[in-house]
Amino acid sequence: MTAKIENFTDWVPTRVYWRENRPFVDWCYMGDNRFTEPFFDDTIERRFREPFNLLFRHQTPIEFLAEINAHSEIIAPTGFIFHLSRCGSTLISQMLAAVESNIVKSEPPPVDWVLRSDVKNPEISSEQKIEWLKLIIGAFGRKRNPSEKHLFIKFDSWSTIELRLIERAFPDVPWIFLYRNPVEIIVSQIKQRGAQMIPGVVGQILPGFSQADVLTMQPEEYCGRVLARICEHALKALPHRNGSAVNYEQLPEAFDAVISERFRVDFSPEELGQMKLATQFNAKTPQLNFVADSDTKRKEASEAARVAAEKFVDPLYEKLEKMRLQS
Amino acid sequence: MSHEDFEKYQKLVLEDLSLQERLKTFVERTDFISEVVVSGAERGFDISREDVENELRLSRRNWHKRWI
C-alpha cells in the first residue's frame, strides 16, 4: 500500500465492499463537516452533492485502517446505542449530535457490513469480524476537530443480534438498549417498513425459516418475530455491568438521568440545553416538530398487529420491563 | 477517454493535495467539470466534458447500488 497517511486527513470511511476477494474501504472527503443528519448515509449523501466528493474517493484495503489509526489521535467509543427500531434511538443520536464535542455515527453501513460479513462468506471468523470492527470504529473516532471528545455509535436494530460479539471487541464501552411497546413498533413498521422488516433484505434474520416461509408470512407476524429475535439477544446480554435497558416512555426526560449517567459523560448545562432543543423536532424529519405518538399508534393497531405483538414480543417486553425496573 | 484512463487521472488527483484544494473550490457542477477538463489537460489527459459527466453518473449509480 503506497497511500500516504496525510492524504487521508478529513476523509472518512463510508462503505466496505469486496474487491479481488478482499474487503476494501471507500472514503469520502468530509472537510470540517460533522455527521449531524439523522443517519450516517444522509450525511454522506449530502457530501455527494458536491461534485468533487462524488468523483474523487480513496479506495483502500481494510487493513490500511490499522496504519491510518496508528498515526491518528483516536477517541475511544464513549457509548453504544442498540435498539428495537422506532423507539427513540434516532432522537437520542440527534440529541448527541447537537453538541460539537460528540462524534455520532448513526447506523453506519461499514459497521453493518462487518457484522454481517460472514453471511455471504461463512469462512469469516468472529475474531476476524472483531478485528475489522475495531478498525472501522477506530477510524470513526479519528479526531478531526479540536472540540471532539466523545464517540457514540448507534447500531442498526438488527445488530443487537451481534451484541455479544460487539462486547468482545469493546468490553469496557457502556451501552443502552432502547425498546418500546411492541404493538406501537409493529404499527409503525407496517406503515413504512425498515430494511430488516422486508424478508431477505438483511439476509436471513429469522433462523429456522426458509426464504419461502418468510415470503409467505403475514407482514405483522414477520415484524413480530424479528422484534422478538432482537429482544431475545438484548435479554441474553442483560443485566450487564455496562448495559442498561431504556424504555421509549422514559424519553426524552430520562436522557440526563439515565443515558448521560450510563455513558459516564458530564455534559455542561449549555450542552444539555443544545440537546434539549434537538428533542423539539422529529428526529428523522427535523423540519417537523416531535410529537409523542404512542396513543395514536395503539389506536391504529390492526387485529393482526395486536395478535403478533401479544404472541411473539409482549412476553419479552415484559421481561425487559421487569429487568429495567429492578435495576 | 476510457474509464481506465480516467481512473489514472483520479489517482493522480488523490495523491496531489494542492490539486484537490483547487478542485474542491468548484462546488457548482458546470464550473467543476470545466476545471477537471483544464486540470486534466495540464497533466496530459485528454478529458472531455462528457467524460466527466459519465464518471459522475457512474459514481452516483455505484453509490445507489450499495444496497444491492
Task: Describe this protein's structure.
The complex is a heterodimer of chains A (327) and B (68). Chain A has 327 residues and is of the alpha/beta class. Chain A has one domain: Rossmann fold. Helix content of chain A is 45%, strand content 14%. Chain A is built from 15 helices and eight strands. In chain A, β1 and β2 form a beta hairpin. In chain A, α11 runs parallel beside α15. The longest helix of chain A is centred in the last third of the chain and has 24 residues. Chain A starts with 10 loop residues before the first strand and ends with a helix. The mean pLDDT of chain A is 92. Chain B starts with a helix and ends with a helix. Chain B has 68 residues and is mostly helical. Chain B has one domain. Chains A and B meet through α2 of A and α1, α2, α3 and α4 of B.
Helices and strands, with pairings:
The complex is a heterodimer of chains A (327) and B (68).
Chain A: E1 11-19, E2 22-29, H1 40-47, H2 51-55, E3 59-61, H3 64-70, E4 77-83, H4 89-97, E5 102-106, H5 109-115, H6 117-120, H7 126-140, E6 150-154, H8 163-169, E7 175-179, H9 182-191, H10 211-216, H11 219-237, E8 243-247, H12 254-262, H13 269-278, H14 294-300, H15 303-326
Parallel strand pairs in A: 4-6, 4-7, 5-6, 7-8
Antiparallel strand pairs in A: 1-2, 2-3
Helix pairs in contact in A: 3-7, 4-13, 5-7, 7-8, 9-11, 9-14, 9-15, 11-15
Chain B: H1 3-14, H2 17-24, H3 29-42, H4 49-64
